[in-house]
UniProtKB/TrEMBL annotation:
UniProt organism field: Spiribacter vilamensis
Domain of life: Bacteria
EC code(s) of this entry: 3.6.5.4
Name of the protein: Signal recognition particle receptor FtsY
Keyword flag Membrane: yes
Major enzyme class: hydrolase
GO molecular function, one term: GTP binding
UniProt KW Transmembrane helix keyword: no
Membrane topology recorded in Swiss-Prot or TrEMBL: Peripheral membrane protein
GO BP annotations, alphabetical order: SRP-dependent cotranslational protein targeting to membrane
Keywords: Cell membrane, Cytoplasm, GTP-binding, Hydrolase, Membrane, Nucleotide-binding, Receptor
Gene Ontology annotations for the cellular component aspect, listed alphabetically: cytoplasm; plasma membrane
Catalytic activity reported: GTP + H2O = GDP + phosphate + H(+)
Amino acid sequence: RPGLIGRLRNGLKRTGSGIGLVFMGRKYIDADLLEELETLLLTADVGMEATNRIIGDLTDRLKRNKLDDISALHQALRENMMAILEPVAQPLEVNRDKKPMVILTVGINGAGKTTTIGKLAEQYRNEGRRVVLAAGDTFRAAAVEQLQAWGERTGTPVISQPTGSDAASVVYDAHQAAIARGADVLIADTAGRLHTQSNLMDELRKIRRVLGKQDETAPHEVLLVLDAGTGQNALAQAEQFREAVDVTGLALTKLDGTAKGGVIFAMAQRFGIPVRFIGIGEGVDDLRPFDAEAFVDALLD
Ligand code: GDP
């Protein structure tokens, strides 16, 4: 299996929008180059703000004769990209002082929430941590079953109640169980139904409040899971969830199969929310801490 960079590169170049392609076969910086680069950035869903920032800086450097050749431009582009991504590349540290550390995951259906929870549970378990999962999506029976399947696969207890139960009460129970068992990490799943958005946001706020009852510092992380393949749509989702619950970290999934991975730049430029993880496949080991340098290399090389 190809490594992270290879897979990201394949994904990001899927529809020919690999940004590094702009340099291929070019010896000199001609007038078209920056325009072409601008188009490539926008096509990869880097977004207007981040694209303008990058192109603006490159144009400026060109005018001041600071860019002599293609390799200098390549380097300057790399610096610009790193300047946007480095501040948000903040892996999620497990807080050992909290028993348990509580991770509340939110995001719309299909974003990859359950899969991300499963992968995380597996990673923590491999590190020797005790994990409890809360089946907080009480709206869909399939969601509970899917979480239970991950629980079985990773040997992690899943606290659930029948479909239709109060989500906050499930999460409260799970928190209590996690405390009683001396668990290191509690990861709570939540519903992600789109059409009744306002109810969902109320439900999430209630879950948030309920977690604070047994530990006033909980949740310690509100992880928003977004499908990177939805491009600019992911920005709109981030906006909504940010308003309802104080999102403290992002997991961007499906970067293995999208040409819109540039949305990470748009997200970083607009919100500055730490990017904790990226998903690069469906397998249990396909969740990685976000590494800005590896990501930029995959885009440019
Ligand atoms: P949820 O509704 O948010 O819980 O989403 P799921 O976890 O059920 O994921 C929806 C689909 O996306 C499933 O088929 C997953 O296997 C798939 N998926 C999740 N993360 C990734 C990823 O990083 N890469 C790929 N290729 N597929 C993913």
